[in-house]
Amino acid sequence: MNDVGAGVLGLFGGTFDPLHVAHLRLAIEAREALGLAGVCFIPAGNPALRDAPQCGAAHRLAMVERALAAAPGFSVDDAEVLDASGRQSYTVETLERQRRLHGPQRPLVLLLGADAFARLEAWHRWRELFDLAHIAVATRPGHEVRVGPGSLCVPGTPLRGQVTALDREFAARRGEAADLANAPAGRIIPFAITALEISASAIRRRLAQGLGVRYLVPDAVLDYIDSHQLYRTPHGH
């Protein structure tokens, strides 16, 4: 792992299957909006709450490393990809490992999209996440994650009709970017990012159909995909 020094560190996990420009924009805008010293990308080895990645872990790691090679302030944690045990990756364990790496006092911020945050109660040991890191929730401009009457409101999502545990956590922990440096963990910070309708699944479909994806992924990622003929068949290997 390449550290980025002291200060508030953003942690951005994902399958990155493949990494695309919306991932990079989220990291860039999180760094700007939240005053982060840097962002560490953490490719998942074997994610627990989604289908298995189409592309192998080593390829996904290589694409992330190439995309970030010339990006100051970004680093890559390869521990989960290099874990040969095959065990599932859980965010709470990722954060526990990051705490061991960075010590108990450094502010860590888990970067999530609004949709992922809305499903947080389904995550393994989700309440412990707040003891390990802050959570920053990326939203579309003009929208925000907010507590409504009986629901955590994500734009476009109907009210669920009852106050959930996540609603209560959000109401109690909501803060501002300036709060992040004052504690190592525990706050929930919404921040707006540029809305980019780009998804890894759509990119994979285009590649499988023989269509172009230039400017949807960094050039270094596209070069890697082309040189290894990734995603060109239904199995992407």
Q: Would you give an account of this structure?
A:
With 237 residues, the chain is of the alpha/beta class. It has a single domain, classed as Rossmann fold (3-Layer(aba) Sandwich). It is 33% helix and 16% strand. It contains nine helices and eight strands. It has helices spanning 21-34, 57-68, 79-82, 91-102, 114-118, 129-132, 165-173, 200-208, 219-228, and strands at 9-14, 38-43, 74-76, 108-113, 134-139, 146-148, 151-153, 188-192. It has a six-stranded parallel beta sheet, sandwiched between helices. Strands 6-7 form a two-stranded antiparallel sheet. Helix 2 (57-68) packs antiparallel against helix 9. It is globular, with a radius of gyration of 18 Å.
Fill in the CATH topology.
Answer: Rossmann fold
The CATH fourth-level homologous superfamily: HUPs
Helix/sheet category: alpha/beta
Percent helix range:
25-40%
What CATH first level would be assigned?
Alpha Beta
Number of helices, where a helix is a run of at least 4 consecutive DSSP H or I residues: 9
Question: How much is the average pLDDT?
Answer: 88
Order of helices and strands: EHEHEHHEHHEEEHEHH
Largest sheet: 6 strands, parallel
Number of individual domains: 1
Radius of gyration: 18 Å
β-sheet strand percentage: 15-25%
Report, as a whole number of angstroms, the end-to-end distance: 26 Å
Low-confidence runs: 147-152, 154-158
The order of strands across the largest sheet is: 3-2-1-4-5-8
CATH architecture: 3-Layer(aba) Sandwich
Number of strands: 8
Shape: globular
